[in-house]
């Protein structure tokens, strides 16, 4: 871990050359694991709160695997729930609310409100969450004086939800990618039937393999490439249906696949930039990053991305007349159930937003994209009420088997990299 000086420059102790990788695209991803620190304080809590409990869940290898497994489970579950909710909102029921731009703006507004609400709620319930071993969900307290900024915006006094233009401008690109991902995905879902939407999104996995190779400079083994492409082909077989073809929905789905695949890679880079920003600069005392720094970076990055996305989409939706069209043509705006469904869409979208960052940090952007394959296959079977053709069931099984093959290969790949690192470190120390 780098050690930064007060002047903002970085200096390292004697370390092997592989620790000098300054790439912001690939870094160790175990910084979010809720483990106890060496001084006895709980990960995610202040250094004043010492570990006084006799039992710890996450400090064991089994607990670490359980935590990562829970993140993957909720990431896939919330993603499937979001697709199902979009299907209900756009295509089923009495309302059939076919206004994707207004829906995207409403989802982002709901996310902004929920981020602020949960940041204060988790602090208020900190003793209970710490007792239940969920301290990692607590928004960190105010930063030290050297890290405070004169921000503006909601929650600027809370430390986590501050807004500073000098810092925020570094995240305009990832916010633009996220905005296009949300907006075009809504258009793809609204103007194309669900099977068309699923088939157009199959390109997400090939795009992700391309980005992993050329943006992260990874050399992917044959097992990873073959299994990932097999997931995509299995999902294609699962989604294949005879439905009315909508060119606009297919084109929107293809563009949505590109931005959906690009977003996790830009998100990981933005997270590492945020972490570096918290511990560098002329007013920073330097030192190694703490778990609390990673927690603060996690919350603050979500706030920055959603704030900029609101700046992009809300004015665009007003200029294009989406709000006026909804007000003029929708006769059910006084129905409480409609607003409940729209709010539920915003809540599930917020959970997807949060768990995407957790998934990317604990695994990798490519893993986050490949994991959408079995989730999409399960969602397809669910929304088809499990009445699918034989070839679709073959594709469903193929998708899950290929996903298992991928993650098994990924685990072997990480084990080999760890062994190579250990061997190279031993040779370096001997030298």
From TrEMBL:
* Domain of life of the organism encoding this protein: Eukaryota
Residues annotated as region Disordered?
1-47
InterPro entries named in the record: TPT_transporter
For membrane topology, the record states:
Multi-pass membrane protein
Where, by residue number, does the polypeptide cross the bilayer?
A: 66-85, 97-121, 171-192, 223-243, 250-271, 301-323, 335-357, 390-407
Residue spans of biased composition, Low complexity class: 28-47
Asked whether the keyword Cell division is assigned, the reply is: no
Q: Which GO terms describe its cellular component?
A: cytoplasmic vesicle membrane; endoplasmic reticulum membrane; Golgi membrane
Residues of the signal sequence? none
Its localization reads:
Golgi apparatus membrane; Cytoplasmic vesicle membrane; Endoplasmic reticulum membrane
| Keywords linked to the UniProt accession | Cytoplasmic vesicle, Endoplasmic reticulum, Golgi apparatus, Membrane, Sugar transport, Transmembrane, Transmembrane helix, Transport
Biological function: Involved in the import of GDP-mannose from the cytoplasm into the Golgi lumen.
Instruction: Indicate the family of this protein.
Output: Belongs to the TPT transporter family. SLC35D subfamily.
Query: What's the protein called, per UniProt?
Result: GDP-mannose transporter
The scientific name of the source species is: Dactylellina haptotyla (strain CBS 200.50)
